[in-house]
Specification:
The complex is a heterodimer of chains A (291) and B (292). Chain A has 291 residues and is an alpha/beta fold. In chain A, 34% of the residues lie in helices and 26% in strands. In chain A, the strands form three sheets. A six-stranded mixed sheet of chain A has the order 6-7-8-4-9-10, sandwiched between helices. A four-stranded antiparallel sheet of chain A has the order 12-13-11-14. The chains are: A alpha/beta (291), B mainly alpha (292).
């Protein structure tokens, strides 16, 4: 049985003056968690903004939750079933965490006060902030504010959840806790997770899309991307000058990522990050990432 | 076989969404320290001013107090509503991705601007009660209807100021736009007051009554007899109400598209024409000043 795509993009292009942020992107997403990887400026945020209906594409077809966002009424119908965490989210600092999420819930048309407050408490509980909901946002740490931002995206258990770097500034313990929340969301919803954290993608996603220069470089299963790096990662006592990236690990040995492990080297299990670095294939860019 | 997406009941307009948002915004307005401070000063200054009536009934009129709610609720309300409107802008795109679009959010903010109308109308009631209790004689230079219109114009200003704040927040994006709006509005009101120093004329009356905040009772100098400015308080009140309508409509315009934008523009044009007509009718009567 095939499930209709929640998100369908065909030939979507977006330009900012002379820069092409998205170049004829085709994409279909179904329920589950999809990771979106790419270097800075690859077009990830532009893609998420278009999907979140806050930015219009220049050309191409966009269908979200079975509808084209063509009229204010259709836009509202889509937005009722969507949660969006933007990359940069400021906060009205006079608000408490609870008041802010409550305000967002009203914007999301939770009109019955009791039900709305229950929902706000639920999502604050999901991000483990039920105890600090009464505190002013200005008194919360950056990681706590990021979780508040995630909480508002989770309101109403949306069918489509768009998350732009949700774990930025969040400590490792909370990141693991958030993975539990997101994995639960992915069981019923379509979740698109844009991140620089390859380990989050490896831990959560069954599918990964890699963007670069506005084009999709890879779209497939995470294990398929990792498989492209098998035999191309090796350990050695020194950095290999022919490797795309090499760095000294905590053990004192060097991890090398390149086109092929040299004869006699010690191949090691590749990670998603290794495969991602190899996929980008740009030595200058890769060196920057690995530094 | 293809399984359809699970769909929830999709209403074009969620019932009660605007009301819920307006209630939330009204609560924010009520809790604004600037609004509460302005309210406090209004109460204090009104108590002092109504006490003075007993001693200066011959040289003062309740219509002279109209600037109190206009300034303490209206002018301060510009900043209150401006800040409220801009507050959520700090949250970036998350509110824009919610089903309550900018039109509805602006409409809710405009409804919240009715909050200062409550103390403003209470203020009018207070004035009449103080006059009745103190058995203070009133000048016949101002008819009861004109006096009521003058006092009501103060209440309209108390709402109009915040509406202007929403309008500025929706259109002006530079830092300090709210304070600039206050300065412009205060300057306009000052210009109208200065115009009262000019010899009576229709042009002077036009300058006086075009301002959204203005008083009606003045004098040519300290200890000189007071007089009432020329013009029609009733039509001036109608002009102020229409200015409020213009502020609301213009505030709703940004982000509005398609047929809705056309409708908003039509309403804006119609209100502007009627407002100019009302201002003309307010200026039309004899500009001569009437001694109090």
């Amino acid at each position: 049985m095939t499930v209709d795509p929640t998100v369908e993009l065909r030939g979507v292009t977006k330009r900012y003056r002379d820069t092409t942020a998205l170049d004829a992107v085709d994409l279909a997403l179904r329920p589950g968690i999809t990771g979106l990887l790419g270097p800075n400026g690859a077009g990830k945020t532009t893609l998420l903004r278009i999907l979140a209906t806050v930015l219009a594409s220049d050309s191409g077809d966009v269908r979200l939750l079975g509808r084209a966002p063509a009229t204010p009424e259709l836009l509202a119908e889509i937005r009722r079933r969507m949660g969006y965490l933007p990359q940069e989210m400021g906060f009205p600092l006079g608000f408490s965490g609870f008041a802010f999420v409550d305000y967002m819930a009203v914007l999301k048309e939770w009109t019955a006060t009791d039900a709305r407050h229950d929902e706000v408490r639920r999502v604050l509980g999901l991000v483990d902030l039920q105890d600090v909901g009464a505190k002013r946002l200005r008194t919360l740490s950056g990681g706590q504010r990021r979780r508040i931002a995630l909480a508002q995206a989770l309101l109403g258990a949306p069918d489509l959840l768009l998350l732009d770097e949700p774990t930025t500034g969040v400590d490792p313990e909370q990141r693991v806790a958030l993975r539990q929340v997101l994995s639960a969301a992915g069981e019923r919803s379509t979740v698109l997770l844009s991140t620089h954290q390859t380990e989050d993608v490896a831990a959560l996603c069954d599918r990964v899309v890699v963007l670069d220069h506005g084009r999709i470089l890879f779209d497939g299963a995470v294990h398929d991307l990792v498989a492209t790096a098998v035999g191309r990662v090796w350990m050695a006592d020194a950095a290999d000058p022919h490797a795309r990236a090499a760095w000294r690990t905590g053990s004192g040995r060097h991890r090398n990522v390149g086109q092929a492990a040299p004869a006699g080297s010690e191949p090691t299990e590749p990670t998603l990050e290794d495969a991602y670095l190899l996929l980008l294939g740009n030595a200058g860019r890769v060196a920057g990432v690995a530094a | 076989m293809t399984a359809g997406l699970a769909t929830r009941p999709a209403a074009t307009v969620a019932p009660g969404a605007l009301r819920a948002l307006a209630v939330l915004e009204a609560r924010r307005y009520l809790r604004s320290p600037l609004f509460l401070a302005g309210l406090g000063v209004l109460v204090w200054s009104t108590v002092v001013a109504t006490g003075d009536f007993r001693h200066n009934a011959a040289s003062e009129d309740p219509g002279d107090l109209v600037l109190l709610p206009a300034f303490f609720l209206g002018l301060l309300g510009v900043v209150v509503a401006y800040r409220m409107t801009r507050t959520l802008d700090a949250s970036g795109e998350a509110p824009d991705a919610a089903p309550s679009d900018r039109f509805r959010r602006t409409a809710a903010l405009c409804l919240a601007c009715l909050v200062p109308a409550v103390p403003a109308f209470a203020w009018i009631g207070w004035i009449y009660v103080a006059l009745a209790v103190g058995r203070i004689p009133l000048s016949s230079a101002i008819t009861p209807g004109a006096r009521a219109a003058i006092l009501l114009s103060g209440a309209v200003c108390a709402v109009g100021g915040p509406l202007f704040g929403v309008l500025v927040a929706r259109w002006a994006r530079f830092p300090g736009a709210g304070l600039t709006a206050v300065v412009v509005l205060a300057g306009w009101a000052l210009l109208a007051t200065v115009s009262l120093a000019l010899p009576p004329s229709r042009a002077g009356t036009l300058l006086h009554l075009s301002a959204p905040f203005t008083g009606w009772v003045s004098a040519d100098g300290p200890r000189r007899p007071a007089w009432v400015a020329g013009g029609s308080p009733g039509w001036y009140l109608a002009y102020l109400v229409l200015l409020c309508g213009l502020a609301v409509t213009a505030a709703l315009l940004p982000g509005t598209t398609g047929p809705r934008r056309r409708r908003v523009l039509q309403v804006l044009g119609a209100l502007a024409v009627v407002a100019i007509g009302c201002l003309g009718l307010a200026v039309l009567p004899d500009p001569a000043r009437v001694p109090l």
